[in-house]
Design a protein that fits this description.
Number of domains: 1
Shape: globular
Order of helices and strands: HHHHHHHHHHHHH
Oligomer: single chain
Distance between the termini: 10 Å
Number of helices: 13
Radius of gyration: 18 Å
Helix content: over 70%
Strand content: under 5%
Number of strands: 0
Structural class: mainly alpha
Length: 297
């Protein structure tokens, strides 16, 4: 086993924990900034932190900035644009359903990312990994489809669409990182994070400047909670990208289902939402699927 063979799992768990807290912060911002404004916060306020991360890597490694080719820009644009769409869809869905249930719909993503990764990147999925993906995803579906709960088709479709966009985004960013062909996965991941956030910040700032300048002003006024959401977003993305540099997107996004467990904790302790027996069963399946995934690796 190589020295980095297990790091992808550590990076993924750290990213999932950071992202769960960031999503909770963004959920509160949606009420005052709207869906697009809250989406923009993670990119605009995350970008300065991504530059700090990149500066640290440059100084520590003594390496020069990468010089990406055309293929890299195609990959990173795919990742950046679909992540904007995914985040907006996720926040819109969260305004309609409970925090954990929406997460469950979104977290059908691993099945989709495994398929996209196989087709687009040629990332292999072993029988053990496939079983782990299906078991863990079944866990989140069980948590979502509660008997006696009023069906909200709009929220369901938004959540599933967000999962699909997150899947495509993961493939795009992993493709960008790998296309650099750098000996240092740390540099490849950190550089891609900074580039991605630059593209996303510029595009959404331009959109809001043209369509809704009042939201830009509201974002500036809400700079304190926005700064926290931006930092947590950049921190989560940094570790997602490090994980993508070392393992297939399907493996990373399946292990990332531990985020549902973190979300369950936030829903229980902050939003006072109780855990039902059905959710408990879903949690058991997620844990088993994640354990199987680690074993399969």
């Amino acid at each position: 086993m190589s020295d980095t063979s297990w790091l992808w799992a550590l990076f993924t768990v750290i990213a999932a924990a950071s992202q769960t807290v960031r999503n909770a912060a963004q959920r509160e911002l949606t009420a005052t900034l709207g869906t697009v404004g809250a989406t923009h916060v993670r990119f605009l306020f995350g970008f300065p932190f991504a530059l700090v991360f990149l500066a640290v890597v440059l100084v520590a490694s003594g390496a020069a900035l990468p010089r990406p080719g055309a293929v890299y820009w195609a990959w990173v644009l795919d990742g950046a644009l679909t992540q904007i769409a995914a985040t907006a869809l996720m926040l819109a869905a969260m305004s309609d359903r409970s925090f954990v249930v929406v997460y469950a719909y979104i977290k059908t993503e691993p099945v989709q990312v495994a398929l996209f990764g196989l087709i687009i990147l040629g990332d292999a999925v072993t029988p053990g990994m496939a079983a782990a993906i299906l078991i863990a995803t079944t866990g989140v579906v069980i948590m979502a489809l509660k008997p006696g709960t009023t069906t909200d088709r709009k929220a369901t479709l938004l959540g599933l669409a967000a999962g699909a966009m997150f899947a495509v985004s993961a493939i795009g960013f992993r493709g960008a990182i790998l296309s650099l062909g750098l000996p240092s996965y740390l540099m490849a991941a950190t550089f891609t994070l900074a580039v991605g956030l630059l593209i996303q910040s510029a595009l959404l700032s331009l959109y809001l400047a043209v369509r809704d300048r009042a939201v830009l002003k509201a974002i500036v006024r809400a700079w304190q909670p926005s700064l926290l959401a931006g930092f947590l977003g950049a921190l989560a993305s940094q570790f997602w990208f490090l994980a993508f540099a070392l393992a297939t997107a399907a493996s990373v996004r399946t292990l990332a289902l531990v985020e549902v467990l973190f979300a369950q904790g936030i829903a229980r302790f902050f939003f006072k939402q109780a855990t039902t027996p059905r959710e408990a069963l879903g949690i058991v399946l997620i844990v088993f699927g994640v354990a199987l995934l680690i074993w399969a690796h």
